[in-house]
């Protein structure tokens, strides 16, 4: 069985893009399952899959995060990875789907877990917002705060990988702000490699994401999904359309992860890529200095997607 990929809410499980991608496991929160039941749930998953990789975003309720760490501690196992990847909710769901795609490849559980940090760097996540008055995820200037009081205001915001904010001007989708990749002035900078764009509507009636942003970013496909329940809180307003662009092709994801040099964790012995073990969080031991018979340390992630065709 492939490594189990787990989340804490069903709205972080996007539809599988093909019949080979396994579903994610939805772990029950403390309000639905007591501690004994949670321990039994995790034990059954470990018995069936061998290893469990749970995505634990920092915006989850404290009780949910504490429950996961408690279960791992009681079971005294190094076969449960708790990944604290900080992405907006829709982007988190896309990352989870990518991990599901990798879980059926010939990667070891340690590689799958540590690949999450690598893949997160290639996700472009943002939202079209009706207000940025309470937004604290990206820098917001005084002018943007003042303009938020206008009932017709709309802002294009990119939270990851580089914060960006631009106020849209009118229904045509024009924007005032920083430069953009492959689009008009003010559009959030987009990916320089092939992606699909996923978006989810909140209480904001706008086709800007599909009609303006998708062509500017030259995405290869657009798909709409329901808005995750935590998105209005993350973006500090229910008036939003959340979007995220990510690499959809499992072959490209495989090549990206496989191109990074593998190491073994000095603490738990599992394979890893990057500079930290996904299961025990131990940092990669520094190699001997170059010139003394050792290897110099590579960049944490040296792989990159191939050029667009």
Architecture blueprint of SSEs:
Elements: E1 4-7, E2 25-26, H1 35-49, E3 52-55, H2 62-75, E4 80-83, H3 89-103, H4 109-120, E5 124-129, H5 142-147, E6 155-160, E7 164-169, E8 174-176, E9 196-201, H6 208-217, E10 222-224, H7 231-234, E11 240-246, H8 250-258, E12 263-264, E13 271-272
Parallel strand pairs: 1-2, 1-3, 3-4, 9-10
Antiparallel strand pairs: 5-6, 5-11, 6-7, 7-8, 9-11, 12-13
Helix pairs in contact: 1-2, 3-4
Précis, in short:
With 309 residues, the protein is α/β, with parallel strands linked by helices. It has helices spanning 35-49, 62-75, 89-103, 109-120, 142-147, 208-217, 231-234, 250-258, and strands at 4-7, 25-26, 52-55, 80-83, 124-129, 155-160, 164-169, 174-176, 196-201, 222-224, 240-246, 263-264, 271-272.
């Amino acid at each position: 069985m492939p490594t189990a990929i787990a989340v804490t809410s069903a709205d972080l499980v996007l539809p599988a893009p093909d019949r080979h991608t396994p579903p994610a496991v939805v772990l029950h929160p403390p309000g639905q399952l007591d501690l004994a039941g949670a321990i039994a749930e995790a034990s059954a998953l470990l018995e069936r899959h061998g290893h469990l990789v749970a995505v634990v975003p920092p915006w989850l309720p404290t009780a949910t995060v504490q429950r996961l760490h408690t279960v791992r501690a009681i079971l005294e196992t190094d076969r449960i990875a708790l990944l604290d990847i900080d992405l907006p909710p829709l982007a988190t769901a896309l990352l989870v789907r990518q991990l599901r795609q990798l879980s059926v490849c010939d990667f070891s559980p340690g590689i799958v877990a540590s690949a999450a940090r690598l893949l997160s760097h290639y996700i472009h996540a943002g939202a079209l917002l009706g207000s940025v008055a309470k937004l604290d995820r990206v820098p917001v200037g005084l002018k943007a705060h003042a303009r938020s009081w206008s009932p017709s205001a709309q802002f294009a915001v990119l939270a990851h990988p580089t914060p960006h904010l631009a106020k849209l001007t009118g229904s045509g989708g024009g924007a005032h702000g920083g430069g953009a990749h492959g689009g008009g002035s003010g559009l959030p900078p987009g990916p320089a490699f092939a992606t699909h764009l996923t978006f989810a509507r909140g209480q904001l009636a706008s086709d800007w994401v599909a009609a303006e942003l998708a062509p500017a970013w030259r995405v290869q496909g657009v798909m709409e999904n329901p808005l995750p329940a935590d998105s209005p809180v993350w973006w500090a307003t229910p008036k939003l359309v959340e979007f995220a662009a990510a690499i959809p092709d499992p072959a490209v994801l495989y090549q990206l992860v496989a191109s990074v040099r593998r190491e073994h964790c000095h603490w738990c012995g599992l394979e890893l890529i990057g500079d930290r073990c996904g299961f025990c969080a131990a940092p990669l031991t520094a190699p001997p200095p170059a010139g003394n018979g050792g290897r110099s340390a590579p960049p944490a992630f040296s792989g990159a997607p191939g050029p667009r065709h």
